[in-house]
Amino acid sequence: MVVLVQVGGSGYDDMTKQLDIEYHDDASERVAEMAQCLAQIGQDGPTDALLGNIRRQGHNLKGTAASFGYPVVTMIAHRLETYLNDMRQWTPKALEDLYRFVDRMGEMLDRPHQPSDDEIAQIVRGLPAQSLDMAAPAGTGNLDIQIKVVEIMLVTPTRTIAKLLSQQIIACGFRVNSVADPIEGLTMAIRTRPDMIITSQAMKGMTGVDLICALRAIGVTERIPACILTSQEAGAAVFDRLPAGTMLMRTGEQFADDFGAAIAQYGLG
Predict the structure, then answer these.
(1) 88: pLDDT confidence band, cut at 50, 70 and 90?
(2) Is the pLDDT of residue 12 over 70?
(3) Terminal Cα distance for the chain, rounded
(4) Burial (0-12, 13-18, 19+ Cβ within 10 Å), 130
(5) Fewer Cβ close by (within 10 Å): the C or N end of the chain?
(6) pLDDT of res. 233
């Protein structure tokens, strides 16, 4: 005998509302705990424990917020994670920046209506970005470098490569957002509309060529300049499906020259 379970009705709606309320309360508590950590940092200075707790709470929000109807909170939490990952030393500006991330998440949780994709892009672009003196090892910063309002999305599963290339991109004065998973990168590109995307070719589930082809098939991302980060030669058969205008970037010492050529080619300098 087949038993049919009806989905819907007042009981189902009440349960959904209750779950939403419980998630909102839980997320708000996490944001409040992050704010408390920042207040303690402001009083006593940063510690691994306090910064680690901020990372954990932000990572949880990054993974759950979109599922409960808060995609902008997911985006802000991802940027917070990137900001912390790229930071090499603590500066007075870091506390102010971290407060902006946390305050923004709290504001978005309390909004009666969540922002559109266009507004999400504006909100995310308005978040703090690492400056060279915060992203570089101590003693190597150059305070004359100004971060441009040009955003580069870097999609690579290798954390070491992401950190190395992020430092080079920031050193050129650009904002950078690192994403490890190509599916997440696709979603992030749709919502935040970066000015250029650099993606590794070798990734699990979706290659760099696949990702760029997918971006070209979507209206809001079809015109975003994209580059493939690879050690292979330009004539390799794997690149036969690349859309016209896609540039290759070589890993290693050649990256800086190829990055500069791409910035000039796409008029982002």
Answers:
(1) confident
(2) no
(3) 68
(4) buried
(5) N
(6) 67
Helices 71-86/48-64 angle, 10° precision: 150
Contact 42, 95 (CB under 8 A): yes
The pLDDT tens digits for 122-154 are: 999 899 987 655 554 444 344 444 446 799 999
154 has which bridge partners? 178, 198
Q: DSSP label at 178? A: E
Dihedral over Cα of 123, 125, 129, 131: its sign:
negative
> Measured between alpha carbons, how far is 149 from 176 in angstroms, rounded to an integer?
10
Please report the pLDDT score of residue 128 as a whole number: 92
Strand 151-155's sheet: what is its strand order? 175-179, 151-155, 196-200, 226-230, 247-250
Domain borders along the chain are: 17-127, 129-269
Query: pTM value?
Result: 0.79
The topology (CATH level 3) of 17-127 is Four Helix Bundle (Hemerythrin (Met), subunit A) (1.20.120)
Mean pLDDT of the chain: 88
Q: Give the number of other CB atoms < 10 A from CB of residue 152.
A: 26
Residue 220 near residue 240 (C-beta atoms within 8 A): no
Checking 235-243 for CB contacts under 8 A at 24+ apart, the result is: 238/201, 238/207, 238/209, 239/209, 241/209, 241/213, 242/209, 242/212, 242/213, 243/212, 243/213, 243/216
Q: What is the pLDDT of residue 15?
A: 82
Residue type, 129: A
Reported as a single tens digit per residue, the pLDDT across 147-182 is 467 999 999 999 899 989 998 998 898 999 999 999
- The fold adopted by the segment(s) 129-269 is Rossmann fold (3.40.50)
The alpha-carbon radius of gyration of the chain (Å, integer) is 20
